[in-house]
Automatic annotation (TrEMBL):
It comes from Pyxidicoccus parkwayensis. Residues 17-295 form the Carbohydrate kinase PfkB domain. Keywords: ATP-binding, Kinase, Nucleotide-binding, Transferase. The keyword Nucleotide-binding applies. Belongs to the carbohydrate kinase PfkB family. Pfam families: PfkB. It is an enzyme of class 2 (transferase). This is 1-phosphofructokinase. The gene is pfkB. CDD domains: FruK_PfkB_like. Catalyzes the ATP-dependent phosphorylation of fructose-l-phosphate to fructose-l,6-bisphosphate. NCBIfam families: 1-PFK, pfkB. InterPro entries: 1-PFruKinase, Carboh/pur_kinase_PfkB_CS, PfkB_dom, Ribokinase-like, Tagatose/fructose_Pkinase. GO terms for molecular function: 1-phosphofructokinase activity. It comes from the Bacteria.
Length: 318
């Protein structure tokens, strides 16, 4: 990936507000007391923008926001210096509620419905992307699709952006991912379940995962990263295949961990780093995020420290 113009644009079609409620001893069907509450702007592409902000390249966020609850997004953009090119649509962006019971070791998710995207909105977004492509080299299409949007939306946007010479990253799942990979983005990051679903077969062990990632790379996708959760991630490109295993860290929240890996790997890749350097940096960046709630990037000092503890294993024989 060699950028020809400065700037990264993240595209959020289904932005969300992540609301976390700390509720010791949470019991369904009973009155529960919440001890603390946090609200952060979310959605995968919004998270990626937040993780990348403050680096060497200007960051722009676009996509859709509900006009009724934009404040938390606008506050994030202003705080992190992210250029806001999001389209406002009638209604509210979805809210994802997590009820965290640290005493019981449980997390309960309550996901509210989100926006209904009106006719013509995708065309307006496409026009915005065309304009942004004149000054930005890289576009990150990340997250689920809102209700009423065609499953091939990411594929359509990928093909359009690639035709304009842009580098395209896709991180989604299900049918949108299946359509998108046919348009040959430069970088995809499925987890094992998503990769299995994409290829239509079970991936019973690590060897099968590596073969599947190589199969995806062979279709013309330059970089494939398969997340294995706490076990790390598999990285495949033209240089070969690697397994990167993160060091053990204290975990405050796993929300956005995959998005932080996308941000870390992408920033290293755009800087011209090798596959091993991208794997080490992206894994350390993701591990450093785990100690914070919300899309808060780790300091570069913390990332550099964690990089020394990332284990890299060659998978050339898999």
């Amino acid at each position: 990936m060699t950028p020809t113009k400065p700037g990264i644009v993240t595209v959020s079609l289904n932005s969300a507000i992540d609301q976390t409620l700390e509720c010791p001893g949470f019991t369904a069907g009973a009155v529960n007391r919440v001890t603390s509450e946090t609200r952060t702007a979310g959605g995968k592409a919004i998270n990626v923008a937040a993780f990348l902000a403050g680096g060497d390249l200007p960051i722009t966020a676009t996509g859709f926001l509900g006009a009724d609850n934009t404040q938390v997004f606008e506050a994030l953009f202003q705080e992190r210096g992210i250029l806001d090119r999001c389209l406002r649509l009638p209604g509210s962006s979805r809210v994802n509620i997590k009820v965290v019971d640290r005493m019981g070791g449980t997390v309960t998710d309550l996901n509210l419905p989100g926006l209904q995207v009106p006719d013509g909105a995708l065309q307006k977004l496409t026009e915005t992307l065309d304009a942004l492509a004149r000054d930005n080299s890289c576009f990150v299409l990340s997250g689920s699709l809102p209700a009423g949007m065609q499953e091939d939306a990411y594929a359509t946007l990928t093909a359009r952006l690639r035709s304009r010479g842009a580098i395209v990253v896709v991180d989604t799942s299900g049918a949108p991912l299946k359509h998108a990979v046919a348009a040959k983005p430069d970088f995809v990051k499925p987890n094992v379940h998503e990769l299995s679903e994409l290829l239509g077969r079970a991936l019973s062990d690590r060897t099968e995962v590596v073969r599947a990632a190589r199969q995806l790379h062979a279709t013309g996708i330059e970089l494939v990263v398969v997340s294995l959760g706490a076990e790390g991630a598999i990285f495949v490109d033209g240089e070969g295949a690697l397994l990167a295993v993160p060091p053990r860290v204290e975990v405050a929240s796993t929300v956005g961990a995959g998005d932080s890996m996308v941000a870390g790997v992408l920033s290293a890749r755009l800087a011209g780093r090798s596959l091993e350097e991208c794997a080490r940096y992206g894994t350390a960046f993701a591990a450093g995020k785990l100690v914070r709630v919300g899309p808060v990037p780790p300091s570069q000092e913390r990332v550099q420290s964690l990089m020394r503890s990332v284990s890299i294993h060659s998978l050339s024989d898999a």
